[in-house]
Automatic annotation (TrEMBL):
Keyword Transmembrane included in the entry's annotation: no
Binding residue positions for substrate: 64, 86-89, 218
Name of the protein: 3'(2'),5'-bisphosphate nucleotidase CysQ
Molecular functions per Gene Ontology: 3'(2'),5'-bisphosphate nucleotidase activity; magnesium ion binding
Length: 263
């Protein structure tokens, strides 16, 4: 991933963020898609901005809000972009600030680069195993400056689990209890969308378990960045890393954790 491409992506998410925040500040209509998930004009406008910005790079794009290629068309593609133009649309509708913009580069089924931008915080995390992970303000013109490199925190005395808003299912409660037998009482942070990966990448959260449906564009960017600092995102049954560009673009249930922590 070149610095030129990284700057192009940053410029795109800044532009998309500006338009998303204009809509966020006003009243807006909510539509329900065929899969029963909500969508707003912010999702659609952000998608158009991002797709237009990334298209000159020549890599096929899969965005949540655009018509998608069939699996037959894309199954052998060596590279694809995965875009979630507003991840956390339900949080956007609630106006609780817990939404973000996700961009991931997938190469031969693996997420190799990711970028997650928080419009309300004006912060971006990005990276991959090749370059490491960085956290920057929207205002910087020098995103790869060493001062922005993430200093991974790996010594939480009391382990922290981060989870989506809402209550724990019975299975998650059992998982937490098993962890507490090993690590003692866990602190719980609740947060919507892929913003959870800010905490995971910084090292201020140790575990994230997801036993509910997600799509590839929800998680791929976070996985790429998290792996760059020694984290892992694993299939809950096989404990193998998640892969992408699958037929239905759906993720299995998964667990994200620091690699050095055992279950």
């Amino acid at each position: 991933m070149t610095e030129e491409t990284i700057k192009l992506l940053i410029k795109a998410v800044r532009t998309a963020s500006e338009e998303v925040l204009k809509i966020y500040a006003e009243d807006f209509a909510v539509e329900i898609k065929p899969d029963h998930s909500p969508v707003t004009i912010a999702d659609k406008l952000s998608s158009k901005i991002l797709v237009k910005a990334l298209s000159p790079l020549g890599i096929p794009i899969i965005s949540e809000e655009e018509e998608k290629m069939s699996y037959k068309e894309r199954e052998n593609l060596p590279q694809i972009w995965l875009i979630d133009p507003v991840d956390g649309t339900k949080e956007f509708i609630k106006k609780n600030d817990q939404f973000c913009i996700n961009i991931a580069l997938v190469e031969n089924g693996k997420a190799t680069f990711g970028m997650i931008a928080s419009p309300t915080e004006s912060r971006i995390i990005f990276g991959g195993k090749e370059i490491g992970a960085f956290e920057i303000p929207y205002t910087t013109d020098d995103p790869l400056n060493e001062k922005w490199r993430v200093k991974f925190k790996n010594n939480n005395k009391n382990k922290v689990i981060i989870h989506s808003n809402g209550g724990f299912s019975g299975t998650v409660v059992k998982f937490v209890r098993n962890l507490e037998l090993k690590y003692g009482p866990l602190k719980v942070i609740k947060k919507g969308s892929a913003l959870k990966f800010f905490d995971l990448v910084r090292g201020t959260a140790d575990f994230y378990i997801r036993l509910a449906p997600t799509m590839e564009w929800d998680i791929a960017a976070g996985q790429a960045i998290y792996e760059a600092v020694g984290g892992e995102v694993l299939h809950i049954e096989t404990l193998l890393p998640l892969t992408y560009n699958k037929p239905q673009l759906k993720n299995p249930y998964f667990l994200a954790k620091k690699k050095n922590l055992t279950l």
